[in-house]
Specification:
Layout: H1 12-17, H2 21-29, H3 33-41, H4 45-54, H5 57-63, H6 69-76, H7 81-89, H8 93-100, H9 105-115, H10 122-125, E1 132-134, H11 139-149, E2 158-162, E3 168-173, H12 174-178, H13 186-189, H14 203-213, E4 217-221, E5 227-232, H15 233-251, H16 265-292, H17 294-299, H18 302-331, H19 339-369, H20 372-402, H21 413-433
Parallel strand pairs: 1-2
Antiparallel strand pairs: 2-3, 4-5
Helix pairs in contact: 6-8, 7-9, 14-15, 16-21, 18-19, 18-20, 18-21, 19-20, 20-21
């Protein structure tokens, strides 16, 4: 607890229980490495595991950059192997090797194998801690074996059955074992039809498989069906939360990798500055339309007031559609084969919304300036901009998905620039065409 490190309350255990990330960061930031080790080593295993799940990897690397390898190994050595890999994955390569060398050989081998997979793949989130028995074993032998290992095994949802080469043959639930005579061989009662994934499978696809089949656990196998590890529903819950947070950050214009207010200053600059610089260039492209038609704006100053209204409404419409499509792609509700149907439906929706909003802005512009033709121009510009923005917002994430890019990056610079550019252009072009009559 924090008291053991000489600090005032609340203790770290309460900060962890309340998931107070800011409080944890502040509590540990002022401690020496020895005090950090003392504060964490006295916590129960469950609290330590929760702590490392709460702290983002970049913060973890900074907080424990100087902590002795043996001390850090002691803090995580009783974690499941996949959680150990998550912690070590945030460390520089040389520090990772130092901590790995402190583990017993079997654990070291499991963690090292997990670290070879991408962190966003099935192999990266699986655990090497699972229960497997040879297919020649009997029900009685399995039950006796479970009595010995289950108290320390948190992932005892299923018993996996393997052959002499450790290839997955099938699975058994606890109910299957309880209802069978003790002398029954596993190969006679195993369920051979079992859903599996390869270690390279993306974690979002893993989450969709869990939701589709309502699984508690999912085995990960290689090309020869050798059982490599198991992913649990708890692991997938963390993935869903992580993916949702990343998509929200991207839809808010924040790049991937900056997921906390406590992200190190240099990393925040490195992540944000390129995107903001790109946004500046794209904004220049959008406002170049305004520069081209500056004579029109000087002749009809009122159009300068209408420009941000029309472009902003188009941006709102586009972002609404984009958010729905990105969410649909993430949950599997939307597929690329639905492109035509989605484009038609959202285009029709955009035309309808554009009609009503166009009439509204036309009336407001007329009442403001007393010029019916100016109202008509504003209404037509709003109609076209809303209709086009609706189509762009629906189509852009599908196009990005088709070329294997993250659909969530369609927001910010890309989406805003496209809707601003078209909004400015259609408003000023229509105004310039009718300028002699305005």
């Amino acid at each position: 607890m924090i008291e053991s490190a000489g600090l005032s309350r609340p203790p770290i255990s309460l900060l962890i229980a309340s998931e107070d990330r800011s409080g944890l960061h502040d509590a540990l930031a002022g401690l020496s490495d020895e005090e950090k080790a003392a504060a964490l080593s006295g916590l129960p295993v469950s609290d330590r595991r929760h702590f490392f799940k709460l702290i983002p990897p970049d913060e973890c690397a900074v907080l424990f950059s100087e902590l002795d390898g043996a001390v850090l190994a002691g803090l995580v050595s009783d974690f499941p192997s996949d959680e150990i890999a998550d912690v070590l994955g945030s460390l520089p390569e040389e520090r990772r090797g130092d901590v790995l060398g402190r583990f017993p050989e079997p654990l070291r081998r499991r963690v090292r194998r997990l670290l070879t997979y991408g962190k966003d793949t099935a192999g990266g989130i699986m655990s090497g801690d699972f229960i497997a028995f040879p297919d020649a074993a009997t029900v009685g032998e399995v039950i006796e074996g479970l009595r010995k290992i289950a108290p320390e095994q948190e992932r005892a949802f299923y018993v996996y059955v393997v052959d002499a080469q450790q290839k997955l043959q099938g699975v058994l639930s606890m109910r299957d074992l309880v209802l069978r005579p003790s002398e029954t061989p596993l190969r006679q009662i195993l369920r051979a039809q079992i859903v599996t994934v390869a270690p390279e499978t993306d974690q979002e696809e893993v989450a969709r498989i869990f939701q589709k089949h309502r699984l508690l656990a999912l085995p990960v196998v290689d090309g020869q069906r050798a059982l490599l590890g198991v992913i649990t529903a708890e692991d997938v819950a963390g993935v869903i939360q992580q993916e949702a947070m990343e998509d929200v950050l991207k839809l808010s214009g924040l790049p991937s990798g900056e997921g906390s207010i406590h992200t190190p200053f240099s990393l925040a600059i490195k992540k944000r500055l390129p995107w903001l610089a790109l946004n500046l260039l794209l904004d220049c492209a959008a406002v170049s339309v305004v520069a081209y038609y500056q004579g029109t704006i000087q002749a009809i100053v009122a159009v300068a007031v209408l420009l941000p209204i029309i472009s902003d409404m188009g941006g709102n419409m586009g972002l609404q559609n984009l958010s729905l499509i990105v969410r649909g792609l993430a949950t599997g509700e939307v597929n690329l084969k639905d492109f035509g149907k989605i484009a038609w439906r959202q285009s029709l929706l955009g035309l309808t919304m554009g009609l009503f909003l166009g009439l509204q802005v036309a009336l407001l512009a007329y009442l403001w300036q007393g010029k019916p033709l100016l109202g008509a121009v504003a209404g037509l510009a709003m109609f076209f901009n809303i209709a086009v923005a609706a189509l762009i917002g629906a189509a852009l994430p599908l196009v990005l998905k088709a070329v294997r890019l993250d659909p969530a990056i369609a927001t910010g610079p890309v989406m805003t620039t496209m809707t601003d550019f078209f909004g400015f252009f259609v408003t000023l072009w229509l105004t310039s065409r009718f300028l002699p009559y305005l």
